[in-house]
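Lab meeting, item 3. Inverse folding demo.
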């Protein structure tokens, strides 16, 4: 098939997600290897987004490919009620890397249904029905997961079909309603204000009605919001105080993204339930999972778990996950994410120092964001949230892609989420392009001040 046919036929017969069809900006991809993608014309792109925040081990890893091929030849499919070799091995491996006590796993098709199943389990275990989640959160695109989501994306589908979801505020130092300059506040003082807010919500809602608090350990597409010191520990303490389960959504920040297997490890917090997907297989096959403590799983020893789908525990996906974890271990990708994360932190700081359009930067491991503004003093976003991109943001985004860097841009933010195999040289390669793009935004800002 000719390269132009791939795009034209794809456009003719597909419904594209998260976009108006006639405005869809589709990249026709032909191959990928390491940290690079190639389009159908042969142009190369540095993948600064792990494609969809998932290809943690990089593209084209033969160890995972071969594991999938072997599994296809041995046993292509088994039903969700069947025991298989990859199911046995993956459960054992996951139990060795998850936080202490989380040793039982329910496999799903991805992150959205992992979060929905986590809610089912929490409600079953506690006998309560309310779920507390944060406003700047994204937990998936199915109707239940969209109800759990706090950001603008849920508004389109309201009224949603999952009752009992209550949202609360995120600790967001750069844009805090409690502190005009949150960056200048001592982190534990800042955290305590948000913990007090959460506790007030719990009291108003009635602790006896709340099954779980569900949070992204590090908020992802809403701006890589890293919890300040004391916050996650405080949420754990509040959950313990009121006998509420803590569910951490590690779909995006798990499997080495922050330099640890799971981001909660940075704060020595053990959740009751963890949801995962994306980096679980590095996108080589669809798979999500719900990890839970043994005492939670035990409620189903004599009681039916009401749930399940045809492809839960698909053997090829399980084999891909097992091989993916082996790659992360054997190639030392947790360490690389941590070390390259220091380079990313430095490059982001230099970017902020150089460009007036950069209001704030933040990162943990290879999980970073730059927040672009028109005016640092008033923090006006370079492009308004939940609206079409401003002309200057469009110019920045187009320049980056045209010059060979593929990354995720959400309104006025640039997200830096490269494969964990990336080198310092490759990080600097990408930042050189982004530096030039931000100079365009700086020019627009200076014009506005004239």
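The presenter then showed the designed sequence:
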């Amino acid at each position: 098939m000719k390269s132009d046919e791939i795009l034209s036929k794809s456009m003719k017969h597909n419904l594209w997600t998260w976009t108006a069809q006639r405005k869809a900006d589709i990249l026709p991809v032909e191959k990928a290897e390491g940290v690079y993608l190639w389009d159908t014309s042969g142009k190369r792109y540095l993948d600064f987004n792990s494609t969809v925040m998932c290809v943690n081990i990089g593209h084209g890893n033969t160890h995972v490919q071969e594991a999938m091929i072997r599994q296809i030849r041995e046993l292509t499919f088994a039903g969700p009620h069947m025991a298989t070799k990859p199911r046995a091995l993956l459960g054992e491996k996951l139990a060795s890397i998850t936080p202490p006590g989380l040793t039982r796993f329910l496999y799903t098709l991805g992150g959205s249904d992992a979060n929905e199943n986590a809610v089912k389990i929490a409600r079953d275990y506690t006998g309560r029905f309310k779920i507390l989640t944060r406003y700047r959160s994204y937990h998936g695109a199915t109707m239940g997961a969209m109800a759990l989501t706090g950001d603008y994306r849920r508004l389109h589908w309201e009224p949603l079909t999952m009752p009992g979801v209550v949202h609360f505020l995120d600790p967001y130092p750069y844009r805090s309603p409690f502190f005009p300059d949150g960056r200048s506040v001592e982190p534990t003082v800042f955290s305590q204000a948000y913990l007090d807010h959460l506790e007030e919500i719990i009291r108003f809602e009635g602790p006896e009605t709340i099954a779980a608090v569900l949070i992204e350990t590090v908020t992802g597409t809403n701006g890589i919001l890293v919890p300040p010191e004391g916050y996650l520990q405080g949420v754990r303490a509040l959950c313990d105080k009121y006998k509420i389960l803590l569910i951490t959504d590690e779909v995006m920040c798990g499997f080495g993204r922050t330099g640890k297997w799971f981001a909660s490890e940075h704060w020595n917090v053990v959740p009751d339930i963890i949801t995962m997907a994306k980096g679980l297989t590095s996108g080589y096959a669809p798979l999500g999972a719900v990890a839970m403590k043994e005492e939670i799983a035990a409620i189903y020893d004599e009681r039916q778990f009401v749930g399940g789908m045809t492809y839960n525990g698909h053997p090829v996906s399980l084999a891909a996950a097992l091989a993916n974890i082996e790659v992360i271990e054997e190639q030392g990708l947790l360490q690389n994410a941590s070390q390259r994360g220091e380079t990313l932190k430095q490059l982001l700081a230099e970017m902020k120092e150089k460009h007036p359009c950069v209001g704030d930067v933040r990162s943990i491991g290879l999980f970073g964001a730059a927040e672009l503004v028109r005016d640092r003093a008033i923090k006006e976003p370079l492009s308004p949230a939940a609206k079409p991109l401003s002309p200057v943001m469009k110019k920045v985004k187009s320049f980056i892609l045209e010059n060979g860097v593929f990354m995720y841009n959400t309104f006025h933010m640039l997200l830096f989420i490269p494969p964990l195999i990336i080198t310092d040289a490759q990080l600097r390669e990408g930042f050189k392009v982004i530096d030039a793009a931000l100079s365009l935004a700086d020019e627009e800002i200076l014009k506005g001040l004239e």
